[in-house]
From TrEMBL, chain A:
It holds the Pfam family Cytochrom_B_C. The main subunits of the menaquinol:cytochrome c complex are a Rieske-type iron-sulfur protein (QcrA), a cytochrome b (QcrB) and a cytochrome c (QcrC). Belongs to the cytochrome b family. It comes from the Bacteria. This is Menaquinol:cytochrome c reductase cytochrome c subunit. InterPro entries: Cyt_b/b6_C, Cyt_b/b6_C_sf, Cyt_c-like_dom, Cyt_c-like_dom_sf, Cytb/b6-like_sf, Cytochrome_c550/c551-like, MenaQ_cyt_c_Rdtase_cyt_b/c-su. The chain crosses the membrane at residues 41-62, 102-124, 136-154. Residues 180-253 form the Cytochrome c domain. It comes from Terrihalobacillus insolitus. Residues 27-154 form the Cytochrome b/b6 C-terminal region profile domain. It is a multi-pass membrane protein.
TrEMBL record, chain B:
Residues 5-224 form the Cytochrome b/b6 N-terminal region profile domain. The lineage of its organism: Bacteria, Bacillati, Bacillota, Bacilli, Bacillales. The keyword Iron applies. PANTHER family: CYTOCHROME B. Keywords: Cell membrane, Electron transport, Heme, Iron, Membrane, Metal-binding, Transmembrane, Transmembrane helix, Transport. This is Menaquinol:cytochrome c reductase cytochrome b subunit. GO terms for cellular component: plasma membrane.
């Protein structure tokens, strides 16, 4: 490197004033048909990227990102599932030897050893051989790890009924309604319906009553005869109260439609 | 004109070496799919970077609408998904990109592993790469909570319970992540948002810079 006397700089900076051609070094370590990265190779990479992007966008358009119901911490029936690339860990913890009393093994020791070994692979596999067949232990362990991850992932979702799951967790925007708890209708509701449909009609054992599309007559019929999973004879009271109840539910829904 | 501007800046800043280092190198034959089709395995790293760029861009646009608050998080995602023009596409890109980046990262790791490319002198780059993998998994875990729907909420609850089993530091880790010893709630959401949007991307950028500087310094590993 050129040093000391005779060097000229731009102003008082450390940038040299005498321009030198910046010619890249030869890539002669691996003889063969090398190619300039810029622009030749980058152009090809660009094309690969473009094809990849088109495929990716087609996938994105074909399947919108899923969104379930707004989180409800009181929902005790929900079976949690992590994102797919954590499923193998999730499944591993279900086994007797890795969960329950031995959760430390399943949650910390085993993954810690596996990922620690991955991190330190260059120091565990120090031989100079690079071909997979020339280092059978390393290759074998990795193949075993991949197989078990794939198998655990499969096991974790083999039983999952995706369609019911999606159906039960459809996103619904709960309309905001003010419920007049002083009204006669609410008093009737409070007597017969509140235990299943919740004190704000938000649902519980039974579904929410906000956003249902029934007429007064239909609601009266359902209250007495039941529908779907709802048994008959839930309503107890006079015909007048039944009318008040149905009108109350319809009025809440009219409010929700606005 | 452009040349003059360039020369003017270059005289003062000496920018030529900066881009020359990136642009001017030969690509060896054995990694070039134009010469050997099987060399497509060398694309996985670049594609991982490409998807990461997609994630950064789509994520930046998502934060224009997203509200990290338990009352409004889900509603803002629902609004984005159903009302905003192209909102569904941008969220779709971020959602599916999160999966594709893991797939690409996995394939890239396997390529390097089975080719023994992590061996001397590239041990340090392998370690940085595995750390990048961990950061990416962390981004996946924290991002999963943000839509604040049922699957997000309950998966995070399980994840935090697992974190809690760590000996000695488990409780502290859980409180650090969720803001409370028992509740997964408002604090958890803001913390996960901060980790997802600020802390982990910062780590990601730093590690990626180191990863790329190392590969330029050492060059691609030779053919098997």
């Amino acid at each position: 490197m050129h040093k000391g006397k005779g060097m000229k700089f731009v102003g008082d900076s450390r940038i040299k004033a005498d321009r030198q051609p910046n010619i890249p070094k030869d890539y002669s370590e691996y003889p063969g048909r090398t190619e300039a990265f810029w622009p030749n190779f980058l152009l090809k990479e660009w094309l690969v990227g473009a094809v990849f992007l088109v495929g990716f966008l087609v996938m994105t358009l074909a399947e919108p990102a899923p969104l379930e119901k707004m989180a409800d911490p009181t929902d005790t029936t929900y079976i949690p599932l992590p994102d797919w690339y954590f499923l193998f860990l999730y499944q591993f913890l279900k086994y007797e030897f890795a969960g329950g009393n031995y959760v430390l093994i399943g949650a910390i020791v085993a993954p810690g050893l596996a990922f620690g070994a991955l991190l330190l692979a260059p120091f565990l596999d120090k031989g100079s051989q690079r071909r997979p067949v020339k280092r059978p232990i390393t290759t074998g362990i990795m193949l075993l790890a991949i197989t078990s991850v794939i198998w655990l992932t499969y096991e974790s979702v083999a039983e999952v009924d995706w369609e019911t799951r999606t159906e039960q967790n459809k996103p619904v925007l709960q309309p905001e309604v003010e419920i007049d708890k002083e009204s006669d209708g609410y008093a009737v509701f409070n007597k017969s319906c509140v235990s299943c449909h919740g004190d704000n009609l938000q649902g519980g054992v039974g579904p929410t009553l906000i956003g249902v599309d029934y007429s007064v007559e239909e609601i009266k019929k359902i209250a007495v005869e039941g529908t779907g999973d709802m048994p008959s004879g839930q309503f107890k009271g006079s015909d007048e109260e039944l009318q008040q109840l149905a009108e109350f539910i319809v009025s809440v829904n009219e409010q929700a439609d606005e | 004109m452009m040349q003059k501007i360039y020369d003017w800046v270059d005289e003062r800043m000496d920018i030529t070496p900066l881009w020359r280092d990136i642009a001017d190198h030969e690509v060896p034959e054995h990694v070039n799919p134009a010469h050997h089709f099987s060399a497509f395995v060398y694309c996985f790293g670049g594609l991982t970077f490409f998807v990461t760029v997609i994630q950064i861009l789509s994520g930046m646009f998502l934060t224009m609408y997203y509200v990290p608050d338990i009352e409004n998080a889900w509603k803002s995602v629902y609004y984005l998904q159903s009302e905003v023009a192209s909102g569904q596409i941008v969220r779709g890109m971020h959602h599916w990109g999160a999966s594709v980046v893991i797939v690409m990262l996995f394939l890239h790791t396997l390529r390097v592993f089975f080719q023994g490319a992590y061996k001397k002198p590239r041990e340090l780059n392998w370690i940085v790469g595995v750390l990048l993998f961990f950061v990416m998994l962390g981004l996946g875990f924290t991002g999963y909570l943000l839509p604040w729907d049922n699957k997000a909420y309950f998966a995070t609850q399980v994840g935090l319970q697992i974190a809690e089993t760590t000996p000695f530091i488990g409780d502290s880790v859980k409180i650090l992540l969720s803001g409370d010893a028992d509740i997964v709630g408002a604090q958890t959401l803001t913390r996960f948002f901060a980790i997802h949007v600020f802390f982990l991307p910062a780590a990601l950028f730093g590690l990626m810079a180191v990863h790329f500087i190392m590969i330029r310094k050492q060059g691609i590993s030779g053919p098997l």
